[in-house]
Specification:
The complex is a heterodimer of chains A (about 325) and B (about 375). Chain A is α+β, with helices and mostly antiparallel strands and about 325 residues long. Helices cover about 60% and strands about 10% of the residues of chain A. The two termini of chain A are about 30 Å apart. The model of chain A has no long low-confidence stretch (mean pLDDT about 95). Chain B is α+β, with helices and mostly antiparallel strands and about 375 residues long. Classes of the chains: A alpha+beta (about 325), B alpha+beta (about 375).
Chain lengths: ~325, ~375
């Protein structure tokens, strides 16, 4: 029993953190977001390092690591608000790896792992998937029914949509692709965990920026972080963030080690991480005061990521409903 | 990340489960005194089986279990629906404090009767005017020959009416700064100068007491950790209080929640979207509490000191337990509001959760200042 990253996983985390700190500070995020474009130089570098294929099997050209390692990268990318299409490619890779046919795997996984193709993943309603992150310019989009009952692979063809989160390119995708061969539910559950990891990173950064700010900012002659009202809200942000982290890494661990527990664990992670990201980023704006509401303060990139990401693949309410169904099913079996 | 138990941990758990199966705790009897006698008998049986001081080193009669095994012990104890051992304060606070600060004579004298529940311990820290601000306590100890003479008042003393020894923190130097003038004593409760008055709480029962101390005598050899060192000695016990208990409380919460899920499924309450959402939220909170507790232990095992999780679990537990009792009243209606039913008891007992052992408000200050490094609160 060890609820902690291994040495290797901590190395990945440190490397990712240091790289993003030097290559993707908020100046770069702002520049790319204002140009409505990805940070192509950063994306090339991440592809050379093999990040998009970290959780894709070696036989398909990836690094063959697990969902925990992917979550480590996504948490750091979320914290940096890095303007890359990595999330979409990683999600498409996860889905095709776990539910694709041999032909689909053959066709897409190597290209997604190397970055020569870009992917995205979304949920379809009435034949259309709205606001699919990283879909604009994607070569392949995996679409799911919201309940995970069915999945399909669509080639290209996303219509660009400008979302409130300008650190990412979004698209509208029409259904009508080739069905996924395998268990769509499990593939979708893995995607939920990956998105939860990104939201955990967003929450952590919101907390870190806030703690740093309230230590410095003085009013009434003292740092505002000495006011209990401020302290208590910051403490709540820490609880929200730590909760998101343990729920996410527990779910990531079940995916590879005890997949029968994955559906419940993934729903719990997405439920908590979604609400946490909304609360921590709103808290960050509030505790930064007026400056937090300005474009220059950079808190808003996190708030916008959280607003879209928390609803992507279903928000807190939807996933608590999923938890309730699983609890009910369990109780009925027990009775 | 590896969330499976090792072979050693599994062997420990299986041995304990087998013992608990062969020695079931039975159902709690009615009435305060009967319940206490049940918990004391339970500890005697645990002791005979070698399970009373699992986390105590072998040289002191314990099992020498690791942190993880201790957590497993409390989880399994909760799962078997056994009570906490009657001398829980001695086992978790008193004994470990004597082990760290006590003289060899004190270790020989006090440790064994704690394990066997022959001598029960209580905790005399809080006072009417010293709650969260413990260091401002006023109970005074004055030297008289080789003895100390103590006068003052203590409050929230659970189990005082059954106790032989009180872990008493008193002021021995009124000139020193408030944290510095304190001393930690072991006070014999069996003397007329110590009067115990049960404190009736909002549930109607009396788990806690007030202690009125009027010139009680404590021999000098009953000082633990040196005169004037009481604040430091007391902090040892306050830190010990949290670790193992968290697992027991977490399992209790899980059992109550599972009971409620069963009831909500059979009475169709889960068809109501709000109730279903709240119930699912409680499930998520309860699981996160368990994960935080495990992560906290992993952090201590690896780095030798607690991470942020340790400060969060008590807060999250009390909050979740209060939400649970409220939801139970929504799901069960009249039953949970009828005096004497288990859920009615929970409804009245849970408001104390966010006060006992550290109020949530102070815990949040501690999280902000010690975990996040914010400036001291104003």
């Amino acid at each position: 029993m060890r609820f902690d990253l291994s040495e290797d996983q901590q190395d990945i985390k440190r490397t990712a953190h240091d790289l993003l700190a030097s290559r993707s500070g908020f100046e770069q995020v702002r520049k790319a977001a204002e140009a409505a474009a990805y940070d192509d130089a950063l994306w090339s570098e991440l592809c050379e390092l093999g990040w998009p294929g970290i959780a894709i099997a070696e036989e398909h050209g990836g690094q063959g690591l697990g969902l925990v390692e992917l979550c480590v990268l996504l948490e750091e990318l979320g914290a940096a608000c890095a303007v890359t299409p990595l999330l979409g490619s990683a999600l498409a890779g996860l889905a095709i790896e776990h539910a694709g046919s041999d032909a689909q795997s053959e066709r897409w996984l190597g290209a997604l792992a190397s970055g020569s193709a870009r992917g995205a993943l979304g949920v379809v309603r009435d034949g259309v998937a709205e606001l699919v992150p990283d879909a604009e310019g994607a070569d392949v989009v995996v679409l799911f029914e919201a309940d995970g009952s069915r999945g399909e692979v669509v080639e290209g063809g996303a219509e660009a949509v400008i979302a409130i989160d300008p650190t990412r390119r979004h698209g509208r995708v029409s259904a009508g692709g080739e069905p996924l061969a395998g268990d769509a539910g499990e593939a979708l559950a893995r995607a939920l965990v990956a998105v939860s990891a990104e939201l955990t990173g967003v929450s952590q950064r919101a907390l870190d920026m806030t703690v740093a700010y309230v230590k410095e900012r003085k009013q009434f002659g003292v740092p505002v972080g000495s006011f209990q009202a401020v302290q208590h809200r910051a403490a709540q942000m820490l609880l929200d963030t730590e909760g998101a982290r343990v729920a996410t890494y527990f779910a990531a661990w079940t995916a590879d080690a005890e997949p029968e527990r994955l559906p419940m664990a993934a729903a719990m992670a997405k439920a908590w991480a979604s609400d946490a990201a909304q609360a921590t980023t709103a808290g960050a704006i509030q505790l930064h005061g007026g400056i937090g509401f300005t474009w220059e303060a950079d808190v808003h990139w996190l708030f916008k990521r959280a607003q879209v990401g928390s609803r992507f693949l279903g928000g807190g309410g939807a996933h608590r409903a999923a938890v309730a169904s699983l609890l009910r099913a369990g109780a009925e079996i027990a009775a | 990340m590896d969330l499976t138990f090792s072979d050693t941990q599994l062997a420990f758990r299986d041995e304990l489960r087998a013992w608990l199966d062969a020695n079931p705790p039975g159902d709690a009897p009615e009435g305060d005194d009967a319940r206490y006698a049940w918990a004391r008998d339970w500890q005697r049986r645990l002791h005979e089986g070698g399970w009373a001081g699992v986390h105590w080193p072998k040289e002191y009669g314990g099992r020498g279990a690791s942190l993880m095994e201790t957590a497993i012990f409390f989880e399994e104890l909760g799962r078997a629906r056994g009570p906490l051992p009657a001398n829980v304060l001695g086992l978790l606070l008193g004994g470990p404090t004597v082990m760290v600060w006590g003289t060899d004579e004190q270790k020989d004298r006090y440790l064994e009767p704690i394990l066997s529940a022959e001598e029960i311990w209580c905790q005399g820290f809080s006072e009417p005017d010293a709650g969260s601000d413990l260091a401002s306590l006023k109970t005074r100890a004055v030297p008289d020959g080789d003895d100390w003479v103590v006068t003052g008042q203590k409050v929230w003393t659970s189990g005082a009416q059954y106790s032989k020894w009180c872990m008493l923190v008193a002021r021995t130097d009124t000139e020193a700064a408030k944290h510095k003038g304190l001393t930690y004593f072991l006070m014999d409760m069996e003397q007329d100068a110590v009067q115990v008055r049960p404190l009736r709480q909002i549930t109607g029962e009396a788990e806690f007491n007030e202690l009125f101390i009027d010139q009680a005598r404590i021999p000098g050899e009953n000082v633990v950790g040196g005169v004037g060192n009481g604040w430091k000695v007391a902090l040892t016990t306050l830190m010990n209080e949290r670790a193992g208990l968290a697992f027991f409380l977490q399992v209790r919460l899980r059992q109550h929640l599972d009971d409620l899920i069963g009831r909500a499924t059979s009475n169709s309450a889960l068809d109501d979207a709000r109730l279903a959402d709240t119930l699912a939220d409680l499930h998520v909170r309860t699981e996160i509490l368990r994960l935080l507790a495990w992560k906290g232990l992993s952090t201590i095992e690896r780095y030798g000191q607690p991470g942020p999780e340790g400060s969060l679990t008590k807060w999250l537990w009390s909050d979740t337990n209060q939400r649970l009792s409220q939801l139970a009243a929504d799901v069960l209606g009249a039953e949970a509001l009828t005096a004497g039913t288990p859920w009615a008891y929970e409804l009245l007992r849970s408001p104390g959760n966010s006060i006992e052992g550290g109020t949530t408000e102070i815990l949040k200050n501690i999280v902000a200042e010690r975990v996040m490094g914010l400036p001291r609160a104003r």
